[in-house]
Write a structure and sequence with these properties.
single chain, 396 residues, alpha+beta, Nuclear Transport Factor 2, Chain: A, Immunoglobulin-like, 2 domains, three-stranded antiparallel beta sheet, 14 helices, 39% helix, elongated, disordered N terminus, disordered C terminus
């Protein structure tokens, strides 16, 4: 912005203006670069720049190795210690994230600065929004409203900003190759969980946690906290397999019908009801094809379907995240995959054969999920239409 002096401006006025301008330039320089000799200030400055979306300054704060590993465009999709959300939600979630910086631990040329992070609990928030099926507003509108009204669950966890001392001062260590490797391992671990290969999923989570612990880097501790939480849920799910198998009898089917799908292929449709007292994240059905009658009746083919499959991780609103609550009913439908001759000659029978209990529960109102208090440090509510956010953050 250009400030024009009036016709009566004196030399003294101009000197004062120049003095104030110099102070402003110094303050801006401090915000951008931090104090080279103080690790805590460097960490605070990096996080302050993140909060005001000053991405060039965040990038310049990185170590020389990290900047050689990634261009600023690549950095924008993997910003250390930033929320792991898609492009359209990045700015609103950053605005609702608070960072409290502690005293650093310095050993030689390495400084580890503890950071207490309080942010929206993304996995629970997604479930909360999806649970309100009676709301006529779109999911996007409900999400924006919940942020603006501070009605969302929060989570607080410990993280760190790791700094390395270089010739021009303390620099933020990101270690992008490590985070990329961990993100790949996490994707594999989640896929194994959804395939119900719990032993391999647990092994994959332990591997990625070991990777995160190898080398200190900014944001690693926060990632570990999130992945440890997912690991505990998978371990609990594994321990409940026998109980869940017995519970499957309480998840009942009604109005089951064999008819054509919209794609003009055979499918099975009906209603599913949870008659028990536990919410379930997953309902697995087995379709068994039988030939013959009476004593000659025999199974000749079977196929599995999972009409309810709720992720334990945040899905970035890419799918329904809606467990089946106790006493709740829901319509279902799926196309049949058996070979044409099996479908022609055999009769299908469908049954619920397995469920997975929900480890996160089913919040039904913002108050049940825990409305976030308004922090005195929090900025203004997130804008309804975020402007020029960075590219999408990768799903880790």
């Amino acid at each position: 912005m250009i400030v024009r002096a009036s016709g009566n401006t004196t030399v003294a006025d101009m000197k004062r203006s120049a003095s104030f301008g110099a102070v402003g330039i110094i303050l801006c320089a401090i915000l951008i670069s931090g104090c080279a000799g103080n690790p805590r200030t460097v960490a605070e400055t990096y996080l302050a720049n993140l909060k005001v979306f000053n991405y060039p300054a965040c990038y310049e704060a990185l170590s020389a190795k990290d900047r050689s590993d990634r261009t600023i465009e690549q950095f924008l999709v993997a910003i250390p210690i930033a929320p792991d959300v898609s492009r359209e939600w990045f700015k609103p979630i950053v605005l609702k994230t608070d960072y409290s910086v502690g005293e650093p631990s310095i050993e030689g040329n390495l400084a580890i600065v503890p950071v207490k992070v309080t942010a929206p609990d993304l996995a629970q928030w997604e479930r909360l929004l999806d649970a309100d099926q009676n709301d006529k507003d779109s999911l996007e509108k409900r999400a924006q409203d919940s942020l603006q009204q501070n009605h969302y669950p929060t989570i607080t966890y410990d993280d760190t900003v790791v700094l390395a001392k270089e010739s021009d001062g303390w620099k933020v260590v990101a270690d992008f190759p490590l985070k990329e490797s961990v993100a790949t391992l996490h994707k594999q671990a989640v896929e194994l969980y959804h395939k119900r290969d719990y032993d391999q999923a647990i092994a994959a989570y332990n591997s990625l946690l070991a990777e995160l612990a190898k080398t200190p880097a900014t944001g690693n501790k926060g990632l570990a906290s999130r992945y440890e939480s997912e690991l505990r849920m998978i371990e609990t799910t594994k321990s409940q397999v026998a109980e869940a198998q017995a519970y499957a009898a309480k998840v009942q089917l009604s109005n089951v019908d064999l008819k054509m799908t919209a794609a003009a292929v055979p499918g099975i449709f009906g209603k599913i009801t949870n008659r028990g007292d536990k919410p379930v994240d997953e309902v697995r059905m087995t379709v068994t094809y039988y030939e013959g009658r009476g004593a000659r009746r025999k199974a000749v083919y079977s196929e599995e379907h999972t009409p309810i499959d709720t992720p334990i991780e945040f899905s970035n609103f890419s799918r329904d995240v809606l467990p089946l609550a106790p006493n709740q009913s829901r319509d279902f439908g799926f196309r049949l995959n058996a070979p044409a001759e099996i479908q022609r000659d055999a009769k299908p029978d469908v049954a619920v054969t397995m469920v997975v209990f929900s480890q996160l529960g089913v919040p039904s109102t913002p108050s049940e999920a825990g409305a976030a208090p308004v922090s005195p440090k929090a900025p203004n509510p997130a804008p309804a239409a975020p402007q020029a956010p960075p590219p999408p953050m990768p799903k880790g």
